[in-house]
Specification:
The complex is a heterodimer of chains A (320) and B (324). Chain A has 320 residues and is an alpha/beta fold. Chain A has one domain: Thiamin diphosphate (ThDP)-binding fold, Pyr/PP domains (Rossmann fold, 3-Layer(aba) Sandwich), CATH 3.40.50. The longest helix of chain A has 26 residues. Chain B is globular, with a radius of gyration of 19 Å. The chains are: A alpha/beta (320), B alpha/beta (324). The complex binds thiamine diphosphate (TPP) and magnesium ion. The site of magnesium ion has 6 residues of chain A, from strand 4.
């Protein structure tokens, strides 16, 4: 597949923005600005970036508890995200949701989700709506290796298959569900093999190679838009941080961690950009600086935003 | 007696029964090396090994479903659902299997299993990780529901729950896990269905459970200074409910305030109020009051969460209304 310099640089910018956002969230969480649970996407940026590059604002995604990267890649506004992480009234959910529930329905982002596997049938539903309205938009469902053991996974893939829905199931296999490693929680090594049980195509790709992810997703999205039904893509990747901030990750070996850190998707892409002479070191640094500035502005916005009012508790329980 | 935190006490209860009965085992997500999301099972994997402390995949349906099958076949599983909110995933196994089997089979099956699960708001975990869902489970015939408020009860109720021959929801409050208390050691149970008067008083009965007991206690201390003597009664087990103890207390005080963290509509406070109205109407000299969360999901922002969770001030205000 022909990928232009602009496309690759775009990927780089998105991935760096996600990384910078996450590093900031990490810092703010440690400093007590962010309450609750924070699950960081550091190390997995290539997945959301490569997949969402194939989507438009009219397409849908369902996200997970580890959702910041999906949201940014789908065009989510980082200032509203940051404000939501801090529980501010200016945040995406007016401070009601926090990290695990950020959504932007206008951008087709049907929410991060605190229930593992919950997005799988919801994604089928969004795809059902696309098909029902006879439009060519699609839905992408992001979920983890652990989530592929939920009943929802099996029911949703089967439903999507028999209904021939325009949905792409993207499994982010970071090899762990909290402390439980893949070889202990399932007896298949390629989760994409499971797609065959539902009669849909499944492929496994290097989830730290944004190009590989992009190409696999392009194929699946094309199929879905043409009315040829669902697909599954397994992206093999690694989370650099603990399951949530505060998890020391004692269940992972240092050797494993070290080996994967070397496969950092951002460094991988940097090497490629330099090798192709698409950018110089200075240009890459400039992209990083811009991302830092944008994130700093988002933090300022969030910090200067007011908290919700106690009366807001009972607002938005029902639609009027 | 030994000083322990609530979480150490509930763990010690599990350990005690696991040492005593080889048919007791523990299964759930991240209960092994990880030691549970809030450290509830820390050390048990090392002590009892992977055959009895079992990490499951993320598969609540099969966690509860397998426990039903294992319990009906002679084992005594303790299964953990990492947050009570996730019982939504395995409701059929709870509602239509675990709690129906014995009755449907004409009393010919036994399903001795404990579902251990944390509830409660206060940690910024938002709408899908903070609920207090006890009333869902008290509504199911065949289910027992315990909600300890202090370390000693956490241990004693755990042992009693494991020994019970029925499915028991053992609901631990996230906000209480680190709270210390004096705990009796050895083979000491807190029997299911027995309330505890946490503080004696003569002017008003405050019925509260789980994390609300502590709030009721501090409200009672403040009220004492203003000349109102409140009795704080902790049912400890919601099902079977020790209604007799509640009635005796109300007979003494004439007034009843019920406090729970769950939202009001359909909450278990309504059941207690109805029972007291039914069986203790003549004891009452004032309306029954409920102090609960509002009928909304649990909000994320600390400001909203604080407004959501019933606090000491709300309990004091409700009591004072009865004396106005
Ligand atoms: C139904 C349900 N069960 C358990 C959890 C607790 N939990 C949150 S994230 C997680 C692990 C998810 O693993 P995976 O799907 O691989 O995603 P990852 O965290 O690795 O991105 C678990 C068990 C939950 N939120 N929902
Ligand atoms: Mg995972």
């Amino acid at each position: 597949m022909e990928v232009t310099k602009e496309t690759l640089l775009g990927f780089y910018e998105t991935m760096v923005t996600i990384r910078t956002f996450e590093e900031k969230a990490m810092e703010l969480f440690a400093a007590g600005y962010i309450p609750g649970f924070v699950h960081l996407y550091i190390g997995e940026e290539a997945v959301a970036t490569g997949v969402c590059a194939n989507l438009t604002e009219r397409d849908f995604i369902t996200s997970t508890h580890r959702g910041h990267g999906h949201l940014i890649a789908k065009g989510g506004k980082i200032d509203l995200m940051m404000a939501e992480l801090m529980g501010k009234v200016t945040g995406y959910c007016k401070g009601k949701g926090g990290s695990m529930h950020i959504a932007d329905v206008d951008l087709g982002i049907l929410g991060a989700n605190g229930i593992v596997g919950a997005g799988q049938p919801i994604a089928a539903g969004a795809a059902f709506a696309c098909k029902y309205k006879k439009e060519d938009n699609v839905c992408v469902c992001f979920f983890g290796d652990g989530a592929s053991n939920r009943g929802t996974f099996h029911e949703a893939l089967n439903l999507a298959s028999v209904f021939n829905l325009p949905v792409i199931y993207v499994c982010e296999n970071n090899l762990y569900g909290i402390s439980n490693c893949q070889r202990d929680h399932m007896n298949v090594s390629d989760i994409s093999d499971r797609a065959a049980s539902y009669g849909i195509p499944g492929v496994s790709v290097d989830g730290n190679d944004v190009m590989a992810v992009y190409e696999a997703a392009a194929e699946a999205v094309k199929r879905a838009r043409k009315g040829e039904g669902p697909s599954m893509i397994e992206c093999k990747t690694w989370r650099h941080r603990g399951h949530f901030e505060g998890d020391p990750g004692i269940y992972k070996s240092a050797k494993e961690q070290e080996a994967w850190i070397k496969k950092d998707p951002i460094i991988k892409l940097e090497k490629k950009l330099l090798e192709y002479e698409y950018a110089s070191e200075d240009e890459l640094n400039a992209i990083k600086d811009t991302a830092k500035e944008r994130i700093e502005a988002a933090v300022e916005f969030a910090k200067n935003s007011p908290d919700p009012e106690p009366e807001d508790v009972l607002r938005d329980v029902y639609a009027d | 007696m030994k000083t322990m935190t609530y979480v150490e006490a509930l763990r010690d209860g599990m350990r005690f029964e696991m040492n005593k009965d080889p048919n007791v085992y523990l299964a759930g997500e991240d209960v092994g090396i990880f030691g549970g999301c809030f450290g509830q099972t820390a050390g048990l994997y090392q002590e009892f090994g992977p055959e009895r402390v079992i990490d499951t995949p993320i598969t609540e349906t099969a966690i509860i479903g397998h426990a039903v099958g294992a319990a009906a076949s002679g084992l005594r599983p303790i299964v953990e659902i990492m947050f009570i909110d996730f019982t939504g995933v395995c409701m059929d196994e709870i509602l239509n299997q675990a709690t129906k089997m014995r009755y449907m089979f004409g009393g010919k099956a036994k399903v001795p299993m404990v579902i251990r699960t944390p509830c409660g708001a206060g940690v910024g975990a938002a709408a899908q990780h903070s609920q207090s869902l006890e009333a869902f489970f008290t509504h199911i015939p065949g289910m027992k529901v315990v909600m300890p408020s202090v370390a000693a009860d956490a241990r004693g109720l755990m042992i009693a729950a494991i020994r019970d021959d029925n499915p028991v929801m053992y609901i631990e409050h996230k906000g209480l896990l680190g709270v210390e208390g004096e705990v009796p050691e050895g083979d000491v149970i807190v029997p299911l269905g027995k309330a505890d008067i946490k503080k004696e008083g003569s002017d008003v009965t405050i019925v509260a459970w789980s994390a609300m007991v502590g709030k009721a206690m501090s409200a009672a201390a403040s009220l004492e200074k203003e000349g109102i003597s409140a009795e704080v009664l902790d049912p400890r087990t919601l099902k079977p409910l020790d209604i007799d103890s509640i009635l005796s207390s109300v007979a003494k005080t004439g007034k009843l305030v019920i406090v729970h963290e769950a939202n009001k509509t359909g909450g278990f406070g309504g059941e207690i109020a109805a029972l007291v109205a039914d069986e203790g109407f003549d004891y009452l000299n004032a309306p029954i009051k409920r102090v609960t969360a509002p009928d909304s999901p649990v909000p994320f922002s600390p400001v909203l969460e604080k407004a959501y969770v019933p606090g000491e001030e709300k309990i004091i205000a409700a009591v004072k209304e009865l004396f106005a």
